[in-house]
């Protein structure tokens, strides 16, 4: 019996699969067991044709291929090459070693890539350290850019056979192609990070709105959720779209994960230092935003926004079902999609950014245009957003129609974010301030006596919930990091409270 490595995608995660082969004395036959999909079952005819093309004579024995673990459903035609190699080299002294083999076979023996292979390799790199992979030549150059993978490429089944029969040829098939993004990472607290240095959308384009810019800086530095409210044209969407370019650096693992998610969504994803930015329309359905599908669960907008920004423009106009479903991903940083055949959990650690008008006509805060809305209409408009949902938003910014000069650029803001990010990482935080759990929050938040008094008075006067108090502490911790303070002072608590919605 021989075996080699392969892998399959279960939702968004690669699972290692051991492919085993056995020839037994019985009526000639060829079977694949271990919960294979229809695509894998159909591979038998492709494999037979490809093996006959290289002169392999099938023995008068029963060939059994097992995909282990047997309780995990296997998907994809990339198992073809590994199965063919096990059959062709069954009786030869060949050591497959620690190689993972991927590739779909053509009837003529050509080794082809598949739609999900790049996503699978991205995920495999985070599951198996320094994995050796044999892949189709067409994808080898691109796959070799993935950090942590040793990539070898072959074009035909014959080349793959020679690759294992004559190990001296393996070096010729090795592809080394470091992506420029990973060539010179920034090392912070002993870990490599990559960050954006280009600002095609700049905060310098926004005239005035100093309070909104300050809130955007705090939101970026701590990955806090933020809500902009103001009249049409005051700069809500402009601020939200520019926020992406000043977010903290991404770790190499985060780059791989976000690229894998985009690849799963059907994009021809490339590595980039920018965090994701997803902005679904308010008419989008719940499955398109949270993921779903009648048979197999598909990735949605909240999962695609992982490590980045999810932006809801015209916030109250989203359906009630969508708005209330936001509670789980905002609070637990994950979303569970349950279907008859599968249950999938996607991580959702994103910055939630929302923008809304103050009333249906939008001119309640306007000095130039009168508001046409009645109190009943305004109350009904506000009632679209529930208290528990608003309680999950860290920063609330009320924007007016002020105009001024361009006071600060995105580059300046980004430098402040980077400095605050370094302080958080040097404290040993795995998560940034906005995503800390209660235990970590207690560890990193040391309040000065006067700050503690202010927070207690505010909690009593405004009836702040336990979640609201924690949100205030998280925002205050970020403000202190921006100012280089280790202790939370009274001014930090007061500024954090000023951004709470009352």
UniProtKB/TrEMBL annotation:
Domain Magnesium chelatase ChlI-like catalytic: 202-402
Residues in coiled coil: none
Signal peptide feature range: none
Pfam families recorded: ChlI (PF13541), Mg_chelatase (PF01078), Mg_chelatase_C (PF13335)
Domain (Mg chelatase-related protein C-terminal): residue spans on this chain: 409-500
Lineage top rank: taxon: Bacteria
InterPro entries named among the record's database cross-references: CHLI-like (IPR045006), Mg_chelat-rel (IPR004482), Mg_chelat-rel_C (IPR025158), Mg_chelatse_chII-like_cat_dom (IPR000523), P-loop_NTPase (IPR027417), Ribosomal_Su5_D2-typ_SF (IPR020568), Ribsml_uS5_D2-typ_fold_subgr (IPR014721)
PANTHER family given in the database record: COMPETENCE PROTEIN COMM, MAGNESIUM-CHELATASE SUBUNIT CHLI
Protein name stated in the entry: YifB family Mg chelatase-like AAA ATPase
């Amino acid at each position: 019996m021989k075996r080699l490595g392969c892998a399959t995608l279960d939702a968004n995660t690669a699972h290692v699969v051991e492919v085993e082969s056995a020839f037994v004395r019985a009526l000639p036959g060829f079977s694949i067991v271990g919960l294979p999909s229809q695509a894998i079952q159909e591979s038998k005819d492709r494999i037979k044709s490809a093996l006959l093309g290289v002169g392999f004579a099938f023995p008068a024995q029963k060939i059994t291929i097992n995909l282990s673990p047997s309780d995990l459903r296997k998907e994809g035609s990339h198992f073809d090459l590994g199965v063919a190699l096990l059959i062709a080299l069954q009786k030869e002294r060949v050591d497959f070693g620690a190689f993972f083999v991927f590739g779909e076979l053509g009837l003529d023996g050509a080794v082809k890539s598949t739609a999900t292979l790049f996503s699978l390799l991205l995920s495999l790199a985070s599951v198996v350290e320094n994995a050796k992979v044999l892949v189709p030549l067409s994808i080898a150059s691109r796959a070799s850019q993935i950090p942590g993978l040793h990539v070898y490429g072959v074009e035909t089944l014959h080349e793959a056979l020679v690759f294992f029969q004559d190990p001296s040829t393996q070096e010729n098939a090795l592809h080394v192609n470091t992506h420029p993004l990973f060539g010179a990472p920034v090392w912070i607290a002993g870990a490599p990070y990559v960050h954006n240095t280009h600002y095609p959308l700049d905060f310098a384009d926004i005239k005035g709105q100093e309070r909104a810019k300050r809130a955007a800086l705090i939101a970026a530095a701590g990955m806090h959720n933020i809500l902009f409210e103001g009249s049409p044209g005051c700069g809500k969407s402009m601020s939200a779209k520019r926020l992406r370019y000043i977010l903290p650096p991404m770790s190499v693992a985060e780059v791989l994960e976000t690229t894998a998610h985009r690849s799963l969504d059907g994009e021809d994803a490339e590595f980039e230092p920018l965090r994701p930015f997803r902005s679904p329309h308010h008419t989008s359905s719940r499955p398109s935003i949270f993921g779903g599908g009648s048979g197999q669960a598909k990735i949605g907008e909240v999962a695609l926004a992982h490590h980045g920004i999810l932006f809801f423009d015209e916030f109250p106009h989203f359906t009630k079902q969508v708005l209330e479903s936001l509670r789980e991903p905002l609070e637990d940083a994950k979303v569970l999609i349950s279907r008859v055949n599968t249950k999938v959990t996607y991580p959702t650690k994103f910055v939630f950014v929302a923008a809304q008008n103050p009333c249906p006509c939008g001119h309640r805060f306007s000095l130039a245009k009168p508001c046409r809305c009645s109190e009943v209409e305004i109350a009904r408009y506000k009632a679209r957003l529930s208290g528990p949902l608003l309680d999950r938003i860290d920063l609330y910014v009320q924007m007016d129609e002020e105009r001024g000069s361009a006071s600060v650029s995105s580059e300046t803001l980004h430098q402040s974010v980077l400095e605050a990010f370094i302080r958080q990482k040097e404290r040993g935080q795995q998560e940034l301030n906005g995503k800390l759990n209660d235990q970590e929050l207690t560890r990193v938040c040391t309040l000065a006596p006067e700050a503690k008094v202010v927070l207690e008075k505010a909690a009593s006067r405004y009836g702040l919930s336990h979640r609201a108090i924690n949100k205030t502490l998280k925002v205050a911790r970020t403000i202190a990091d921006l100012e280089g303070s280790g202790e939370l002072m009274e001014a930090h608590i007061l500024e954090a409270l000023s951004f709470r919605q009352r």
